[in-house]
Amino acid sequence: MEKFYLTTPIYYPSGRFHIGTAYCEVLTDSINRYKKMRGFDTFMLTGVDEHGQKIEDKAKEDGLEPKQYVDIQANKAIELWKQMDIRYNKFMRTTDDYHIPAVQKIFERFLSQGDIYKGEYEGWYCKPCESYFTETQLVDGKCPDCGREVSKMKEEAYFFNMKKYSDRLLEYYDSHPDFIKPDFRKNEMINNFIKPGLEDLCVTRTSFSWGIPVLSDPKHVIYVWLDALTNYLTALGYNSDNDEMFKKFWPADVQIVGKDIARFHLIYWPIFLMALDLPLPKTILVHNWFMMKDGKMSKSKGNVIYPEQLIDRYGLDATKYYLLKEIPLASDGVFTPEEFVDRYNFDLCNDLSNLLNRTVSMVNKYYDGYVPEYNGVPNEVDSSLESDAKQAITTFEEYMSKYEIANAVSSIWTFVSRTNKYIDEVSPWILAKEVDGEDEKTKSEKAEKLKSSMYHLIANIRQIAIMIRPFMEATSDNMLRQLGIDSKNITWDSLNEYKDIKGIKVIEKGEPIFMRLNPEEEIEYIKSLMKK
Ligand code: MSP
Fold this sequence. Notes:
single chain, about 525 residues, alpha/beta, Isoleucyl-tRNA Synthetase, Domain 1, six-stranded parallel β-sheet, 14 strands, elongated, binds 5'-O-[(L-methionyl)-sulphamoyl]adenosine
């Protein structure tokens, strides 16, 4: 089996995760499930980034030791991912005992290779981002990443010699077109950071102690980004007594990160790997953000929405559907209660749920619930549907291979609409009347058409149920159950097997998978959540 290693960023465990932060997890989980269905031996890594001044401060605010604080926070993250049915293989914590010595070894190696040297740092420091900036990097005198106040700081520190690697990095970008997705992020890195000249990166701090001490100079703690980025290696046992998993899974196949941390993953991370003489990940996928109408989601603005609030009322699958559909890879998505309710009512209820319901009820009415045998010779209308069904699979697979998940999800709904249109084209209720009618000549032809239409509808719905599986497994199970198909036997490769459905019996009374919401009430409800 071919391996597939995919990672999310490790999250700062310093507050409740809103739908924006949960997005990355859902996205990665969906890719993981898809790859598993395609027969890959996958390993998904997620976790928390527990060191640094921000965490030390937060713990103090709560009157706790940093370790006590992160233990509580890490559990909250684990609970949320459980509720969201995120199927990761490993939950990484940077306070884990194997991680600390492994990072210390990496630091000493850089030091002995001359990649890291000792100097003095003076610069503008953004505490929440734990980043230093030069005067020119500031935007209106504020942090270019988060827009908050920065302060002038000076300290003895170690530096990583980034300049040494900048040509090699540019060459790598050039010769590996799949390394950065989407493509425009590459130019952003080149034009904003590499061409103007890479600054050496300050990789230690002495202003606080909650971090991994430098082995050979313990009054310094290792900069949280060097500590954090290397988690992708240490989680697999790199620099430990048992590095079998590392040997099996490294390099990562896709590492998924939000746009705010693109710079760390597209510049510093590959440079660290080059310095370690390790292969680079095949792809780093940078996604955009979930925004609110009035800008970033933030508690202070009172415009935050949390995943569990949506899940409790609308279910996990509807929440995931919305998240995945609403952020196109290369631009931000905007969360609005109106759009959420529209997508629920139009896409999930009108398009998907009704398609299943209408079909189940017709199969019951015309054939006592048994999917009819049909002669296997599609008429013109059915042929066109069959070729659209094949095309739908190809289009979906292409989008998934480029990790364009929003497009992949949309392509399924294009196929749902196509199938709904087919019902209107064929009008089975008219065929049924004609089958019962007087005209002997057309009777058998109409009977065959009616059989074929039910057969094709069930085949398409089965296909849709398989295609949504990586994102909406419970809905997929529910649809298959109503069709009388055992979801245990479902594989991606069985997508094209039309013959599988001969003789199956659909449920006697169809159950709506999504019920129409009252728009006014639900929009008000979601708005009230956002104000809390
Ligand atoms: N700890 C670092 C990552 C270190 S990885 C070696 C970090 N953590 S974070 O908790 O601040 O962010 C985690 C992820 O959530 C990031 O990928 C970030 O881009 C993402 N998001 C935060 N807000 C978001 C939205 N509003 N929308 C989409 N993603 C968002 O950064």
